[in-house]
Amino acid sequence: MSKLPNVTTSIFTVMSKMAAEHNAINLSQGFPNFPVDERLTKIVSRLAHEDVHQYTPMSGYPPLLTKIATLVKSSYNRNIRPETEILVTAGATQAIFTSLLALLKPNDEAIILDPSYDSYEAPILLSHAKPIRVALNDDYTPHWENIEKAFSEKTRMIIINNPHNPTGKILNESDFEKLELLLEKYPNVLLLSDEVYEYITFEQKHISTHTRPKLLDRCIMVSSFGKSFHVTGWKIGYLVAPDYLMKEIKKVHQFLVFSVNSICQVAVSEYLDLVNINEISSLYQEKRDYFRTLLKNSRFELMPCEGTYFQVASYANISKENDVDFCKRLITEYGVAAIPISTFYADEKDLKLIRFCFAKDNQTLEEAAKRMCEI
Ligand code: PMP
Ligand code: GLN
């Protein structure tokens, strides 16, 4: 008997595989295809010959923990204790899984806002807790009244993802005020804040939970160096949580991975001294704008994109097919792979929306757009 009967292979795997089989341009799964900063690859090459190949301490390579604390201080003016409040993880995926498994008990309820990234549900179910899905508004802002209605005595956690995958929406001041008011009424509810795209926002500045004192004593903040440094395959990220939650999270972490890839930890730690993390947004803003300009004469309608490296587009002017079928045909007939947005919802949806990843070199974006303009 399956423990996760309704879980199937992730749409990111399915679409990337199909893209490879048909030699299509892969704008589906989110990963950059341009070269990694040479300063970072040089560090890794040098480290290969140094004594950095054995286990780091369980929470992370100590200098990296300190650098993360410095990064959080410089980005958000928050002081965190490296030894007790930071955990280096094998990507944000492991941070999310470990936190949910450590903190949810059987019959707890965890609120997820749809459309939502696919990593949240499985660890909730494996904890014998219950995911409660609440739809975002049509413009992808949270529907705070419906969220409040979904709260009960069983609610143990609410998960937010800001900036938001797949829609590129970011939360504003008023959203945070409403969230804080709501959580004040529910002192036992924890907040998991998936902020893996925290350094990829455009016109509007990212508001991190790090800057919200009312949330900090119950918040698990998750970030990913894979996104920030264009190295998704390294699977390295971290979480920040108050000591009393971190103690529980580490109990699971030590048996899930114990510690994370040492050479990547040392490399990221050294690189943090060299990189200007605020340049990441301008890099992706240029890419977003370029991709949108290239698609101006296509029949796709582009949705707003405030952050992340994803562009959502409507194909309602092009086809009446559902988004999964349309994505398949986009690959087989036009040689471009995208992600159907309906797969980010628990219930079946017919939205005619698909997601493109624009974290690509200009040549790739140009060729993909050329093909899309021919549709
Ligand atoms: N959360 C969101 C919203 C993501 O988009 C991703 C990766 N695409 C992750 C978590 C997982 O990040 P990582 O690759 O660091 O595990
Ligand atoms: N998060 C990436 C995306 O949204 C995919 C990561 C994965 O393949 N698991 O495309």
UniProtKB/TrEMBL annotation:
This is Aminotransferase class I/II-fold pyridoxal phosphate-dependent enzyme. PANTHER family: FI04487P (PTHR43807). One of its GO terms (molecular function) is transaminase activity. Residues 24-371 form the Aminotransferase class I/classII large domain. Keywords: Aminotransferase, Pyridoxal phosphate, Transferase. NCBIfam families: PRK09082.1. InterPro entries: Aminotransferase_I/II_large (IPR004839), Kynurenine-oxoglutarate_AT (IPR051326). Pfam families: Aminotran_1_2. The keyword Secreted does not apply. Its cofactor is pyridoxal 5'-phosphate.
